[in-house]
Amino acid sequence: MANTEKINKTNKVSKTKTQHKSAPSDGLAIAAKVFLIIAMVFTFWMIIPLIIGIFTVKSINRARIEQTKKNGDNLIVWSIFAMLLCGLIGGILTLIYAIQVSRSSK
User: Fold this and answer.
1) How many CB atoms lie within 10 A of CB 31?
2) What pTM, to 2 d.p., does this model score?
3) Residue with the larger pLDDT of the pair 6 and 69
4) Of residues 17 and 94, more confidently modeled
5) What are phi and psi of 45, to 5 degrees?
6) How far from 88 is each of 17, 26, 41, 62, 78, CA to CA, in Å?
7) Pairing with 40, which of 25, 29, 58, 84 sits 20 to 30 Å away (CA)?
8) What are the residues whose beta carbons fall under 8 Å from the beta carbon of 104, sequence distance 6 or more?
């Protein structure tokens, strides 16, 4: 009985490892969110970058949970807005992550 439990545990581990190989990096999404939040903190007195940053971070979270082509395409739009209006580094990282999400989804 112990052997079957070990086999089931190793099968679960191997399945999760193979699922994440084609998925975009979560570290890239976290780095993009950090740089966007830093940009929002420094530009809090301007309303438009704050709003764009909030919607971009929400789109990143949505793309991390459900990686579909629609979420990737929406994130591309928000990342371009964030790059132009919120922060350059966060926008570029978000754009790279959005391209990875749209390519990995079918």
Assistant:
1) 17
2) 0.73
3) 69
4) 94
5) -75, -15
6) 33, 20, 14, 21, 13
7) 25
8) 22, 23, 24, 67
Contact between residue 86 and residue 56 where contact means Cβ atoms under 8 Å apart? yes
Tokens 């991390």 belong to residue: 64
Q: Which residue has the tokens 């079918």?
A: 106
4 class by beta-carbon count within 10 Å (0-12 exposed, 13-18 middle, 19+ buried): exposed
- Distance, in Å, from the CA atom of 4 to the CA atom of 47, rounded to the nearest integer, reads 58
Cα–Cα distances (Å) from 44 to 11, 35, 75, 77, 84, in that order, read 48, 14, 22, 22, 16
Q: Where are the alpha helices (DSSP H) in the chain?
A: 2-21, 26-42, 47-65, 69-85, 88-104
